[in-house]
Amino acid sequence: MYLERKGNMKVRYPVEAFALAMVAFSQNMRNALITGILVILITILGLLIDRLFVGRIPKWSRNSCNIVLIVSITYSLFQLVLIRHLGYKSQDLSDIYYIFLGLLIAKHIIDSDSKPDYNRLLLEGAGAYAALLIISIIRELMAEGAIYGYEIADFSYRSYGFSLVAIGFILAGLGIAILNRIFYKNINIIRSESILVIIPVVLLVQPFIIDSINSSVSMIITMVLTMLLFYSIRKYLVFSRISEGIKHMPIELISIGMIYMILSMF
C-alpha cells in the first residue's frame, strides 16, 4: 500500500503555508474558509505555471520568478477576495501575512518534484483545509461563542485567549501532527521548516511589551528572547524520543505556543 511504504518523502501539500494559516488566519471560520481555498488554488496555479518553464530558464531565474509571481498573486487575490469582494477592512498586519503566505507557497513550489502528483496534492490539501476549518471553529466558538460570525451560545467560560497566536500555534501543531498520522503513518517525512512559520508571527505579534523603554527596543528584546527560548527547546527536542507524527514542525509549533503563553504572563 502507498501509505505503508517506508522511505523519505516530501509532504505533497504546502505544509508551511497551511501552518501559518492555522496560526494567523483561524481566529474565525470566515477567514479560514477563504484562506484555505486560496492557498490550494494558488499552489496548483503556481505548479502549473512553473512546469511550463522547467528547463527553459536557469534555476536561479526560475526561483526568483516563482517568488515574485506567487507573492504577487497571493497578495492580489487576498486583497481582491477579502477586501474588494467580501468587504473586509484592510489591516497592516494581515497585509504582511499575505506576503509571507505567498513566500511559503513559493517555497513549496520551488522544492516540489519535477512531476507533482496533483491527486495527492488535492487529497492532502483537502485534509489540511479541513484541519484549518476545525481549528477556526474551535477558536471562534471558545472565544466568541459563535461560528462563522453567528452567535450560537452564550458561554460563561468563553476566553479571549483562544483568539491569540499562542493557541493558534498549539492547535496548528496538533492539526499537522494528526495529518502526518493520517497521510504518512509509516513514512519518514522530509523535514519542514517550522522556523519559516514562526518568524513572521514573532515579527508581527510579540508575547509581551516593555512599557518603560522605547517601543522599538522593546520589540527587539522580546523577539530575541522568544527566539532564544525557542532555539534552546528545539536543540533539546533533537535528542528527545518523539514519535514520527509529531516530530519536527508539530512539536516545535506546540513549543513556541507554550513559550508565548508563558511570556504573555509578564
The DSSP helix count reads 9
Helical content (DSSP H or I, runs of 4+): 55-70%
Structural class: mainly alpha
Q: What is the end-to-end distance?
A: 51 Å
The neighbouring-strand order within the major sheet is: 1-4
Strand residues, percent? under 5%
The quaternary state of the protein chains shown equals single chain
Largest sheet: 2 strands, parallel
Low-confidence stretches: 1-6
**Total number of beta strands:** 4
Determine the mean pLDDT: 85
> Rg, please?
19 Å
Element order: H for helix, E for strand: EHHHHHEEHEHHH
Rough outline: globular
Description:
The chain has 266 residues and is mainly alpha-helical. The protein has helices spanning 15-24, 29-53, 59-85, 92-111, 118-144, 165-183, 195-204, 215-238, 249-263; strands spanning 8-9, 146-147, 150-151, 188-189. It has a domain at 8-193. Strand 2 and strand 3 form a beta hairpin. The protein contains 9 helices and 4 strands, in the order βαααααββαβααα.
